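Demo today. Your pick:
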Amino acid sequence: MATEVELGKSKKSAASNGKKNGADEKPEVEYVEHAWSFEELEGNLAIKLNVAQPGKSAGLTAADAKKRLVENGPNALTPPPVKPWYFHLLAKFLDPFMILLEIVAVLCFILFGTNQGSVDNEVNLYIAVVLVFVICLTSVLSFYQEGQSAKVMNTFKNMMSESARVRRGGQEMDVPAEDLVLGDLVVIESGKRVPADLRIIQSDSLKVENSSFTGEPEPVEMCLEKTDDEALHSKNLAFNSAMVVEGKGLGIVVRTGDNTMIGNIASLVGQTKGGKSTLEAEVIGFVHLITKFAILSAIVFYAVALIKTCGFEIGGDCDPAKSFINVFIVILIANVPEGLPATVTSCLTVCAQRLATRQVFVKRLDCVETLGSCTVVASDKTGTLTQNKMTVSHLWLDCRTRTTEYMTREGNVDKWDSFKELVTAGALCNMCKYEADPNAPAVAAAGSLDLSQATNRPSIATMNNYTLSKRPAAVAGPLGNHQMTYQGTLARRSMQQQKGEAAKSTILNPGFFDRGAAALEASTGAGAGAGADTVRGMANLPNIVRQLSSVTGQATVGRGSQATFGRNSQATFGRNSQALQGAGTLNRLSVNALGRNTFLGGLPLVEAPPRIIVGNPSDKAVFTFCNLFKDIETTREEYPQLYIIPFNSRLKYMKTIHRPPPTQADQRRVVILKGAPEIVLKSCTRYMSKGEELPIDAGFSKRFEEVYKEIAGQGERVLGFARKHLPLSDFPASVDDKYKDMEDKVPHEEFTFLGLISLIDPPKNGVPDAVLRCKNAGIRVMMITGDHPLTAEAIAKKVNIIRDYSMRDDIAQETGESPADITEDRIGAAVITCKDLEHYKEEDWNVLLDKPELVFARASPQDKLDICRHLRARDEVVAMTGDGVNDSPALKNADIGIAMGIMGTEVAKGAANVVLMDDDFCSIVNGIEEGRVLFDNLTKTIAYTLTHLVPELMAVLINICFTIPAGMSSLMILSIDLLTEVPPAISYAWEQAESNVMDRPPRNRKVDRLVRPSLLSYAYLQAGMIEAGICLFAYFMVYGSNGVTPLDLFQFGVTDDFALRDGRVLSLVEQTRIVNSAMTAFYATLILSQVVNVFVCKTRFVPMLEHGVFNNIMMNYGVMVEVGILIAIVFIPGLNDAFSAYGRQPIQFFLFFLVSGAILVGWGELRKFLIRVYPTSCFANAFAF
């Protein structure tokens, strides 16, 4: 068929030619694929399509798919142009903080060039060089940290890469979505994202959400034919990135990559820019505020210095340039924490790395801090609080409850018709199926070998490497077309004791040859005409039977249609049997003992490739249980599925329609109903009892309610099953493939109730303790589940969600009161059936949400959304978990949406902020802890960083206000701000959690901000003043030791010869030495005091020794770097001259930090002690940062 559009390509409409698409203009794309018939689809895509029954198409071969991938490229959008690394590095030099320093550096170079010959002009050069060095170091460090952060996030994204399920060569498999090619047959189902543009060829209640393309919020029910001339609105096309919200279907890939609908608007996506996170904005806002304050204060003090030294005239001794260096630049830089943005990035990156090791993936780094401040965790039950490893625990049929632990096939299937009906229903109304285990060791590829004309037995090597494709006619009929499978348990206990290894399935691949075939016929009764070479009797039975008999200790070998051998095992050899179906699995070591060389009448014994069961946990449990008693694959072949209504949270049931076996006299279609027991029972008018159908009466209904409550009260999930026959007059065979069009005619009443199957899913290890940790941390844990209220209540009590408070019924039982007489204020715990919420008013919601312990049962996704909205309206910070398609609104609405990485759908993962890679509630608690640690460490960093600003300002102010020598030189102050303080500040990113981090209530984000008055009080008025006072003390002590009194300092260092009050005259060189010694003492005392302060700030509440002083290795390295810089500046010749430092002085002048350190430690520990003892006092409010 000739088309205007090249295969898989798109073109702009004529109307759009000659004009550019605006940023908000969608490109017009011409599609024709939706108008193709199946024959045209097959021809245009060069594929083989089963036109009569498209759903049975085999798909491309692996070789064809590989070839197309090479020719057309991957199914991926062309990524937006990536800026080279040097652009990102340049951006760091253009950061506002760096620009500020760059301007200062340029001014210093200008001053150095224009003031040649002036006194101390070289200081301008020194400052300029130091600033350039610091600018380069800080920019490179920030660039490195940003790269590390991006690397962590990319690692997470790779872990979350999407896959697609395709059918190739008749086999379904998972492949990376980017490996899809034109013509691929793709399986899509509820919860998955459409991986490419697909033409739908089969739809089982398939609904796709296309709102991102069409703007229509309602999901579109897909069909096979064109419904609209415009491709965008035709219901037989599903577009790449659309979400499948219900049902299942098959689609042919018609467009990939940039040629898809989303690819044509990718330019719009590429223009989307991520904004600053809340946490980053708060930090940046604080730094900007500090910067503005620094500039304003620098201008003010510079003006004061000029007026003081120059009056209102410039000239004489007035030197504005010197005042600019000594005042403006120093005060400006001293007030700006230049290293804080890099510290914040480091904290976020390290936190994300730690979360990765704890199975938590965050899409935005600031989400961690929000998670740390959450007040409510609204959690699913299955798979999050529980192990998601369901097993069938109880059955209720024939009005009797039976445990399944000791059930055996011999004791049930052959005796109870009701049991057989229930097992058949469980096998048919089930979404699970077998698939090859993708994680199993590779097995040699099976070839195809035609042995129909073989006259000699093939070699053992040949038999072990090929699956035989044809069988001799002598036995083809009696054995049918099924592969012979043997699953027999051979003396379970004795075999396990002897061999010490669990049982394993094997396959007997049918290979029949001359005498071997005749021997099989004679020994099993598979056919007549045994052949002249057949010798009757035990001696001539197949060798495998004799070996199996010797292994098990006893054998009963019969003639005709059946032979049974081995203790506790059974195998059936029959004309119409499925060939060697036993009661369990054959021990792997027994297979090895028999060897691959063993033949059963020409049948080679080979090991089956391992398979796994794929499906949801509930279906898996029912599938596994039913398969013990009735081979599910055989049952499904006997009852082929004609139509399915998949389970969803709205209907709370699943329905399948089947054709009965051809040999069955009653050819009416069979409908199986499975779902919530109360929903299933409403559809039933009769129930099965010992093979008979009886009318449902009041006695049965009462017994049903009692049993349901009893089983659900044990924390088990209960499923109801029912069956109905459809009259052929309404559902003839001719419409088997069109049941979708007759969905409204499929009845939902007059079913026969078959029984209940209950599933037990025990709580995960660690969950009860994790819930208690949340409660200790002031976080309420709520369970929101679709289970029955009694099941939900039982599990909630097991995991400590309901523990400390009493429910209405508990109070009534303890006091003897009527439940109706118990007022709401006495009830602290409640299990709410979400259907009751429909009638709640706002005051009812407030009363309910005030209760500390809450469980919501029979909840729908809409209920989850309503609960989330009402919680957030109360200023709660809500963390909501979800895994289903319909959970996405609640996940988006919550402060933190948490999706499950294993069981979660792609829709849920896309809506969530956080993804748990192990689906474990304990990981949520770990994330909360990490969020609190992140906030703590940022707070500690700021408290530590701001502390040194007070002594620095004091060093400058004593010169400006009192005209005495400055406490530190300009370069000393710059070295502290830009060098020595940065490594210790960044090291807080690696600080461990305090022991009480999960014993505190959540912070109030509106009040307990990152930078608050109590923190500024500690930095400026407490620790800062302590350090400033001891630094001044050291400063004056140096002058005093040299005979210089405070009064002498007012003119000290101004004249060449200075006469002290005691009569001594000091030369300018001696004055300079004393001034440099005093500044060095001030400088060293400040840096070493900060060394002590960095350890004092390690904890906010816990005693320093209890937490550990030297347990942060990165902090230890940071302190070493800080002290190393101090030693270099003070003692290295040349360098100390540049910084005006003098190191050749008595050691005691370097030990004043011991005084400030002792005061800092003492005050810090006393402050923390009082805060712990009186946590709600005014003292705690004022001094706890």
Summary: The chain has six domains: 41-79+161-266, 287-336, 360-388+762-919, 391-433+642-660+667-760, 447-609, 939-1185.
